[in-house]
Amino acid sequence: MAIFSSLNRAQKEAVGLLQIGTFLEYFDLMLYVHMAVLLNELFFPKTDPHTAALISAFAFCSTYVLRPFGALLFGYIGDNIGRKTTVIITTMMMSISCVIMANLPIYAQVGITATWVVTLCRIVQGLSSMGEIMGAQIYIAEITKPPVQYSVVSFVNVIAGVGSAAALGVAFLVTAVEFNWRIAFWIGGAVAVIGSVARTRLRESPEFLQGKKMRDKEIKEREASNQVPISRTERIKSYFVNEKNARKDFISYFLCYCGWPVSFYLCYMYFNPLLKSYGYTPEDIIYHNFLLSFFHVAFGVFYSLICFKFHPLKIVKNRLLIFMVFAAILPLLIKSAQSPTHVFCIQVVILLLAIGEMPAAAVFIKHIHVLKRFTVTSFAYAASRALMYIFTSFGLVYFTELFGPYGVWLILIPVAMGVLYGVNHFEKLERKSTENSYQSNTNLKAA
């Protein structure tokens, strides 16, 4: 692709390895998500429809609920040991969990033990995917420069979508031609091991190494001047806090990342009961979502490419404003849907206008200090995913019961307003950064 021709050989190799790893990671992660309509029946007890909906929401959220803890763990590793180490560890964790699920007896064989073990595996997968996608985005953002930086970082999300689509394809084979679902998890575990080995070829990010070198130098100078060793607590405190506007940056980052979980759940999960009312079987729903995934990937490629010409924040903001208009009529569209085809069209529009960070991830990342970057960004990312998936999945169950399709407003409106606030904040930071860069260049020319 012409856009990536500006990258040198080392950059292309790093981008390729990270993109492949992201594909493998999200293929493994989404295997269960997209086969949940089948696997939940195997690993969870049978219940009434309302309880089944809550169990489905619980199974879905188990992947994300402990991600903030994983963000703190992998954030510490990424900011102190290195980005490379983090992405290798997370890929191995994904592999192990896949192998366990491939061999796990079902509920009919071992009872509630199967439920707890599969939930634990989902939690491990959620933790590892947390370090994976943020590690890949941060690493690529640190070795590239705008405008190509915007596209290559955005393609991490695109490749994650491709991995999800591949998982849907396997899920379709499992349900349509009775392909053994355990083989799918064996394949996922095997390819994750291959991805881990391949990533040992990565070199550490020069920007991170330089920042770490400067931090160590500052610590030595402080200790030498004070003649008193700086305690570990003081190092962590000076490392993570007391930076001007850091809290506002974190909140804005968090709000920007709250949009996609709502869009994803609304598109791929919310309409499943409606599709079942049309006579769709679990196999039909999986195939329906598989077709949707092609649009998901196509729209991701589209946004990743146009951000080479248009600033990513403008793309995100304009798309958000259009989505807010669409959200106003969404309940009416849902009520008037008469067939799976109508539902499919609604879902495609949701994917096209999905609110969230795409394709501005690189912009958000670069405004966080390099030695706080992994922890801050991954924790905000994880917290937004955990909170919004829980709020959306359980909230829609109850809001829909109380208000019908109008219940989606109770989630979409506040989330959209939060994303708009976050984007406006980063627009201000971008303008300030541009002005400072212009002033620096002017001063250099004058000198």
Describe this structure in words.
The chain is an all-alpha fold. The chain has one domain: Growth Hormone, Chain: A. Helices cover 81% and strands 0% of the residues. It has 20 helices and no strands. The protein has helices at 9-34, 36-43, 49-61, 67-80, 83-103, 107-110, 112-143, 148-176, 181-198, 206-226, 232-240, 246-256, 259-268, 272-277, 282-306, 312-336, 340-352, 361-366, 373-403, 409-446. Helix 1 runs parallel beside helix 5 (83-103), helix 5 (83-103) runs antiparallel to helix 9 and helix 15 (282-306) runs parallel beside helix 17. The radius of gyration is 22 Å and the shape is globular. The protein starts with 8 loop residues before the first helix and ends with a helix.
Q: Note the beta-strand portion.
A: under 5%
In the CATH hierarchy, the third-tier topology is known as Growth Hormone, Chain: A
Shape call: globular
Per CATH, the superfamily is MFS general substrate transporter like domains
- Computed structural class: mainly alpha
Radius of gyration: 22 Å
Largest sheet: none
What is the highest CATH level, the class?
Mainly Alpha
The mean pLDDT is: 80
